[in-house]
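User: Let's play a game. I give you a shape written as tokens, and you guess the letters that built it. Ready? Here's round one.
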């Protein structure tokens, strides 16, 4: 991302595709690196093949997130960070630890049937593209995930589609991989290559305020702008700490005993 920013300083925009990588963490973090330079940041990555495209039972794509960050003036920046699936795999893992079922449209079983089993991936099932099914627009989530795969892997020479190295232990390592590692795609666009940055940020403030003032449906307090929930949760977590499930605490304690080191203090949720 730093290379993309330096390219943008010189050329107005900068794009970088990465191969032979691994899990790159929070997509929004990388996109937000551009904000302090009055740039729009973009970050995406392909991931373990856990997602069946529309009309398929084969797992061909990852959750393949996309993040875009744009600076504002008085308002906090716009930060969108989303998986191209109905739910990220991390949400599924949380439900597994809580012994809860998934909402409709998150997963399907090995035969392609709708399921609410949070452990279905371990039984040969798959995550579903954003939208869940064709009637609710899953073909659009499938297309977005495919775009991320092409930009991240086919441009860079990384592995793509079902040949991406898996993170979960229950997913077998694919044979005859066509590329190297996992792929990312990162970009930065200098705002003043298009128009004065201060004018853009002033209009971003106006844009954000417009959405915040939009009339809500009954029962909802306010309209959220992408980035709001994370900022609100950050303030809570900094004040109250990060609650952990007991199963996570037990895993951490077992890891501590195995590797040694100082035992941290944990708060159970």
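Assistant: Ready! My guess for every position:
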């Amino acid at each position: 991302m730093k290379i993309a920013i330096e390219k943008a300083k010189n050329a107005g925009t900068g794009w970088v595709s990465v191969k032979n990588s691994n899990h790159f963490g929070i997509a929004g973090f990388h996109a937000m690196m551009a904000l302090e330079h009055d740039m729009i940041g973009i970050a995406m990555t392909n991931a373990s093949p856990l997602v069946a495209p529309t009309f398929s039972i084969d797992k061909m794509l990852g959750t393949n997130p996309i993040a875009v960050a744009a600076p504002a003036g008085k308002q906090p920046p716009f930060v969108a960070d989303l998986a191209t699936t109905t739910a990220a795999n991390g949400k599924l893992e949380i439900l597994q630890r809580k012994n809860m079922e998934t909402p409709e449209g998150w997963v399907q079983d090995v035969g392609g049937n709708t399921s609410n089993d949070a452990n279905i991936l371990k039984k040969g099932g798959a995550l579903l593209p954003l939208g869940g099914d064709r009637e609710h627009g899953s073909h659009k989530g499938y297309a977005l995930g495919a775009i991320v795969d092409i930009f991240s892997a086919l441009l860079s020479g990384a592995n793509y589609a079902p040949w991406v190295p898996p993170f979960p232990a229950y997913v077998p390592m694919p044979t005859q991989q066509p590329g190297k590692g996992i792929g990312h795609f990162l970009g930065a666009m200098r705002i003043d290559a298009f128009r004065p940055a201060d004018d853009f940020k002033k209009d971003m403030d106006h844009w954000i305020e417009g959405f915040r003032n939009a009339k809500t449906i009954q029962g909802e307090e306010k309209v959220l702008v992408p980035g709001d929930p994370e900022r609100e949760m950050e303030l809570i977590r900094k004040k109250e700490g990060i609650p952990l499930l007991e199963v996570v605490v037990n895993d951490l304690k077992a890891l501590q005993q195995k590797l040694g080191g100082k035992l941290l203090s944990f708060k159970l949720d």
